[in-house]
Design goal:
With about 600 residues, the chain is of the alpha+beta class. The chain is built from 23 helices and 16 strands.
């Protein structure tokens, strides 16, 4: 078996020299063909080749399990430069699982077509943030698929963990890349491991009906081939295939477990040459078999969100007295549904046209914005999660933050109380400053002190709106400082009487808040007035006296408003000074 795989890898390689060297290195480091590492590398390389990916990625699969110090003989070879870049990113992706992330099994009824567990979703996002390329992601998927195909090599607890990862992480990843066959295989391999009773029930209840439908499909194949041939439509292939079991169970849940309502338990796939032939074939099949109303779907004109394209119809076979689904596709549509549009188009057809879809489906957006495969990496770097990072808590929870975020942002993302009492932080076990820029994949720990409270400087450190809002709320509630935007004052700057009782506290905070006020209140004029000998403080010229450059001036502070600049001799100012002396502060024209 292994010899056959090696022969296939060599025979189907476009760069046999590169693959041959990698095979030689693999064998040198694994003299015993029976070793698990040797087998899994060969099998994964074959999966990569079957997906239609290039020899560079096949070579990376062959070398992925070999420690770097044993690759010195090829490390400096220019032929392996791209391979080592892929392996470096691959190791970073593997590092995500070194944190021993705990995914929780949930009842089957809570599953959806794509699992949207927040923790798992963030792990999937991290894959793209860390790799900024699809090759390492495909490599992760291929190795995970090989492990799922050989679960018996692992202990029971490990099998359960890998099965949950398959459902929560790798199946949705495959779906996002359009690799529906791989998605379905991940789910079907995990299904009996995690939900054995449900799996047994399904097998027992669909076995007889599946056999019946397979017989019907086989009888319809030559009829369809003959009818299409009569109309000069070349049929490349007609095949029947049963629905993936996990997907079937999910569908049964929506139909109250009534198998009679499932029309695609077994489906006929008709593969033709062109899109035009697809539509012609649909008309011919409808002439031959009565279509079921409401079951005709055009996924060619309007592809599914994951890029799937086909014409689908459900027809009644008169001879068999059964309904059966028929899918009509071109060859590229069929192959892409097996292993994904992304795998084929990245390396083969960069100009193909598909639609884009939401966050994982944004992977397809590159087809609209890039015309060459070389631009894909740039698109991943600049468009997908370009402003996001993902970091771990000590409990292995994943927190999504904007790029440039600091430990303070992290603290407020956990809880506002942790943010308000944040004293210091550790990143990967080492003490760091609170303004340290965090990176994807780091583990962050916040040390708190109940006597600690926010400082004005924090507003210059944090990047998230949540953190900024919470810090502002603290100062508004505790310090009485307003963060309202600048607005016109029409009451000649008169403060309300109920503010008198706060004068002593306000006097203490004037000097400490000057630089802060300049940053939070927008200015209408250039900085040509110094307030308290500082620039950048928001101010407005009082209308009552309208001081000009050369006049002796003074400023009067009102909470939440720009400082009001008066002439020192202004009657209104002199009245204010008598009533609220702590609010007076020196000023001068710059």
């Amino acid at each position: 078996m292994l010899k056959k795989i090696i022969n296939n890898l060599k025979r189907n390689s476009k760069n046999p020299k590169l693959v041959g060297l990698a095979l030689a290195v693999l064998r040198k480091n694994n003299p015993q063909d029976s070793s698990f590492e040797f087998k899994t590398c060969l099998r994964t390389a074959l999966i990569i080749q079957q997906m239609g990916l290039d020899d560079e990625l096949i070579t990376a699969a062959l070398l992925a399990k070999i420690t770097p110090n044993k690759l010195s003989s090829i490390k400096d070879s220019p032929d392996f430069k791209g391979v080592f870049l892929v392996l470096k990113k691959f190791q970073q992706l593997k590092g995500i699982f070194n944190f021993k992330i705990i995914l929780k099994k949930k009842p089957l009824k809570k599953w959806r077509k794509i699992a949207l567990d927040l923790k798992a979703e963030n792990i999937r996002k991290m894959f793209f943030v860390l790799s900024q390329d699809l090759k390492p992601v495909f490599l992760m998927i291929a190795f995970a698929l090989d492990e799922m195909r050989h679960l018996n090599s692992f202990k029971k607890q490990e099998r359960a963990r890998k099965s949950l990862e398959a459902l929560e992480i790798f199946s949705p990843l495959a779906y996002s890349l359009g690799a529906l066959k791989i998605k379905g295989e991940f789910e079907d391999l995990a299904f009996p491991q995690l939900y054995f009773k449900e799996y047994q029930w399904l097998i027992k209840n669909i076995k007889e009906k599946t056999i019946q439908l397979e017989v019907i499909a086989k009888k319809m194949e030559p009829i369809i081939a003959e009818r299409l041939g009569q109309e000069k439509i070349e049929v490349l292939e007609i095949e029947s295939r049963g629905k993936h079991l996990f997907s079937l169970y999910q569908k049964l849940l929506r139909y109250n477990m009534d198998i009679e309502k499932i029309y695609d338990l077994v489906a006929l796939r008709v593969i033709v040459k062109t899109i035009e032939d697809c539509y012609k074939a649909l008309g011919i099949i409808h002439k031959s078999f009565r279509p079921l109303e409401g079951r005709i779907k055009d996924y060619i004109a309007k592809p599914k969100q994951n890029g799937y394209q086909a014409l689908q119809t459900t027809v009644f076979c008169q001879n068999c007295q059964r309904y059966i689904e028929v899918q009509i596709k071109t060859e590229i549509m069929h192959k892409s549904a097996e292993y994904g549009y992304a795998s084929h188009l990245i390396y083969k057809q960069p100009n193909s046209n598909l639609t884009s879809y939401n966050w994982m489906n944004q992977l397809r957006k590159w087809q609209e914005e890039t015309k060459e495969k070389d631009n894909l990496k740039a698109f991943l770097e600049n468009d997908i999660f370009k402003n996001k990072i993902f970091v771990f808590t000590p409990k292995q929870e994943i927190i999504e933050l904007p790029k440039g975020a600091t430990p303070l942002d992290f603290a407020y993302a956990i809880h506002s109380d942790i943010g308000e009492h944040c004293q210091s932080a550790k990143v990967n076990g080492k003490m760091v400053s609170l303004n340290k820029t965090l990176q994807t994949g780091q583990m962050v720990e916040i040390l708190t002190n109940k006597n600690k409270s926010p400082s004005f400087d924090w507003l210059r450190i944090v990047k998230t709106q949540r953190a900024k809002n919470k810090i502002k709320e603290f100062f508004e509630k505790v310090k009485g400082i307003s963060f309202r935007k600048e607005k016109e004052i029409t009451n000649q700057d008169q403060p309300a009487d109920n503010q008198k009782q706060e004068e002593s506290g306000f006097k203490k905070s004037i000097r400490g808040t000057l630089s802060f006020l300049g940053k939070i209140i927008p200015k209408k004029k250039e900085d040509n007035v110094l307030i308290g000998k500082q620039t950048g403080i928001a101010y407005k010229i009082a209308k009552c006296c309208e001081p000009k450059k050369g006049d002796e001036i003074v400023a009067f502070l009102i909470k939440g408003e720009p400082a009001s600049v008066h002439k020192k001799t202004c009657k209104n100012f002199l009245d204010l000074q008598k009533k609220f002396p702590p609010r007076v502060i020196e000023a001068e024209f710059a």
